[in-house]
Amino acid sequence: MDDTLDVDTGADAEEDADTDVDAADDEDKTSNVIDLYKYMLHTVEDLATCSSTAEAFTGLLSRINRLSLEGNANLDHQVAELDKKIEGILLQRLKHVIQVWCAEFDRSTDDSCVRRNELPSKRRGNK
Q1: How far apart are the C-alpha atoms of 124 and 127, rounded to whole Å?
Q2: d(CA 8, CA 20)
Q3: How far is CA 88 from CA 35, 72, 82, in A?
Q4: Would you call 2 exposed, middle or buried from its count of C-beta atoms within 10 A (0-12, 13-18, 19+)?
Q5: What is the pLDDT of residue 122?
Q6: Residues 96-113: pLDDT tens digits?
Q7: Alpha-carbon gap, residue 74 to 57, rounded angstroms
C-alpha cells in the first residue's frame, strides 16, 4: 500500500510540475502579447510625428499590419480599434497640413494684392 502511495505522489508531483510549466508559458505568452501591443501602440503614435513621405507612412503602416497579425486571438476587435486610432492621427495631420497650406496661400494672395496695389501707384507717380 505504501508503494501505491509513493507512485500516486510521484504522479501528482509530475502533474504539478506540468501545471507550473504551463502557467509559466502562459505568463510568458501574456507578457509577450502585452509588450507587442505596447510596441504597436508606440508605432501608431509615431504616425503623428513621422515625416510626411510615402516611405515613412508605408513603413509604419506595414509594421503595424505585421504586428497586429502576430499571435492575436482578438484580431477583428484589435484591427477595428487600430483603424480608428490611425484614422484619427492621419486626420489630425491632414487638418494641420491643410491649415498650413491655407495660411501660406492666404499670405501669398495678400502679398500679390499688395503688389498689385503698389504697382499702379508707382506707375502713376512715374508718369
Answers
A1: 5
A2: 18
A3: 23, 23, 10
A4: exposed
A5: 46
A6: 999 999 999 888 877 665
A7: 25
pLDDT of residue 105: 87
SS3 72: coil
Phi, psi for 29 (deg, rounded to 5)? -60, -45
Checking if the pLDDT of 124 tops 90, the result is no
Alpha-carbon distance 86 to 105, whole Å? Answer: 28
Q: Which helix (H) or strand (E) holds 118?
A: helix 75-126
Per-residue pLDDT of 71-94, as tens digits, reads 566 667 777 888 899 999 999 999
Q: At what angle do helices 2-46 and 75-126 cross, to 10 degrees?
A: 10
pTM of the model: 0.56
Q: Which set of grid coordinates corresponds to residue 60?
A: 509604419
User: 3-state SS string over 22-63?
Assistant: HHHHHHHHHHHHHHHHHHHHHHHHHCCCCCCCHHHHHHHHHH
